[in-house]
Design goal:
Layout (H helix, E strand, L loop, with lengths): L24 H9 L5 E6 L2 H15 L6 E2 L4 H6 L2 H14 L4 E6 L1 H6 L3 H10 L8 E5 L8 H15 L11 E5 L4 H13 L4 E3 L25 H6 L5 E5 L1 H15 L3 E4 L4 H16 L5 H16 L1 H4 L3 E5 L2 H13 L3 E7 L5 H11 L4 E4 L5 H10 L4 E4 L4 H7 L3 E3 L17 H23 L10
Parallel strand pairs: 1-2, 1-3, 3-4, 5-6, 5-7, 7-8, 9-10, 9-12, 10-11, 12-13
Helix pairs in contact: 1-2, 1-7, 4-6, 7-10, 11-14, 11-18, 12-18, 14-15
Length: 458
């Protein structure tokens, strides 16, 4: 009964957002910062803002998320947060000893107009930043964009602050992943390693937010990309950005600042996109695709062929983050499914809308931006009911109300476990995703089967 008030008739809204299909920029910025080794994310705003950002990530990953805050009070809100920031920098290096403090702004600090570049320069002049340490920042106001935008801005700040062109190229290929799970980052590294490629990848949250339990507290887990690697990315002979929305700015900056030839690809989700990623690795590195990768691809194709009858022609509705959505749409089309709705609360742009529309087909409804919210998504589903929903935890209310199976993808996922350990990228991730889809459809067939059609072998 939670959503029975949602009307079926869709009315165009130009300002009002109801139950947004996104969260705020600092969450994505904080997640990206965790992908640098010995980096402490810092929210320049009130304690409540930082508490929300940390809790969102903590609930999603079931891991303690380390971060600090400038702890604005009424005084800082009126007179500015410079003194809070300077004191924070001093305390953080003294107490927690990170190599890097990655500052993200909040609504409050953006509205009052704090100049973070000036504040950091003041901290340097006052010798508050120890030798060999760095304070960087990204502008991430919550009143625009989304968590994907915040991730993109922090990734761009990494390139701006660290990537350096010494004039002497190294043999590495730089990989810039969009906002994906640590398991997906591990899978991307697995593919590059299997192909024998010398790579640098950042950010890299694998081994940070999915670190093993060893009975000890680690302020800075072993994972994350070392600062030296990010610096060396400026001398890479090539760079591949994976996910057009989350990496576009950083990829452009790496190209223009360091003269690293950069190409932007889609996230390697499913057969077609993973094929494209592996082929680009092959051609840019001059290596051959090893048999191990060919076997992984063959296993995915084998399962898809064996059980194609369970997925072919199924109607699919998707909501989530733009780069992941593009990969999922491609995956569904490769499997013979029909995509009927695709929405994202991230302002992904008209080009993204067109690309999704071309991929999904002329009958698919595609929308991005603030008004592409869960209220609108529910209305679409009431007009054309799909066989399956892809989306985050917040879609469970719609799925329950309409009795539609839900596969949880994207951010946030609060009510299930495994997303930080099992990828959806690469061939192995595609196999994992396909098995989840098959399980959902076959469970539904068992649930709805009459007594005489309840089969042992399906």
């Amino acid at each position: 009964m939670l959503l029975r008030h949602t009307p079926k008739e869709v009315v165009e809204r130009s300002a009002l957002t109801i139950n947004p299909a996104k969260t705020c920029q600092p969450v994505g910025a904080m997640y990206a910062a965790l992908g640098i080794h010995k980096c402490l994310p810092h929210s320049h705003g009130s304690q409540g803002c930082c508490a929300y950002h940390r809790s969102a990530l903590t609930r999603h990953y079931a891991e303690p998320i380390m971060a600090s805050t400038s702890s604005f009070t009424e005084g800082a809100s009126v007179f500015g947060g410079q003194s809070n920031m300077l004191e924070s920098i001093n305390n953080i290096f003294a107490l927690y000893d990170p190599d890097i403090i990655a500052v993200n702004t909040t609504c409050l600090s953006e509205v009052i107009g704090d100049d973070l570049n000036q504040i950091i320069n003041r901290a340097i002049a006052d010798n508050k930043i120890p030798k060999g340490k760095t304070v960087m920042y990204a502008s991430t106001p919550s009143f625009k964009g989304s968590h994907v935008t915040g991730y993109a801005n922090m990734l761009t700040a990494m390139v701006q602050n660290f990537a350096t062109n010494t004039g002497k190229k190294n043999k590495s290929i730089t990989l810039l992943p969009s906002f994906v799970e640590p398991s997906d980052m591990s899978e991307i590294k697995h593919i590059a390693a299997e192909m024998g490629i010398d790579y640098i990848m950042y950010p890299d949250t694998s081994g940070v937010v999915n670190a093993p339990m060893d009975g000890k507290f680690h302020m800075y887990p072993k994972g994350g990309t070392p600062r030296e690697k990010i610096i060396a990315s400026g001398d890479s002979r090539y760079a591949l950005a994976l996910g057009r929305v989350g990496t576009f700015q950083a990829a452009q900056l790496l190209d223009s600042k360091c003269k690293v030839k950069t190409e932007i690809l889609d996230l390697p989700i499913g057969i077609s996109a993973t094929d494209a990623f592996i082929d680009k690795l092959r051609t840019t590195s001059g290596v051959t695709v090893p048999e191990s990768i060919t076997v992984e691809r063959g296993q995915l194709v084998d399962v898809l062929c064996d059980k194609a009858q369970y997925v072919y022609g199924k109607k699919i509705s998707l909501m989530g983050d733009p780069d992941i959505l593009f990969g999922l749409v491609q995956f569904c089309k490769d499997a013979g499914m029909e995509v009927i709705h695709v929405i994202t609360g991230t302002p992904a742009g008209a080009k993204w809308d067109r690309r999704i529309k071309e991929l999904a087909g002329p009958n698919a409804i595609v929308k991005s931006g603030a008004q592409a919210d869960l209220f609108y998504f529910h209305q679409l589903l009431q007009n054309t009911k799909p066989d399956l929903i892809f989306g985050n935890t917040y879609c469970k209310y719609i799925a329950r109300d309409m009795d539609i199976p839900l596969i949880r993808t994207g951010f946030p996922i609060y009510d299930r476990i495994g997303h930080s350990y099992f990828p959806i990228t690469g061939y192995r991730g595609g196999l994992h995703l396909l098995v989840k889809i098959l399980d959902v459809f076959m469970d539904r067939q068992d649930r709805d089967a009459s007594e005489e059609k309840f089969e042992l072998v399906m």
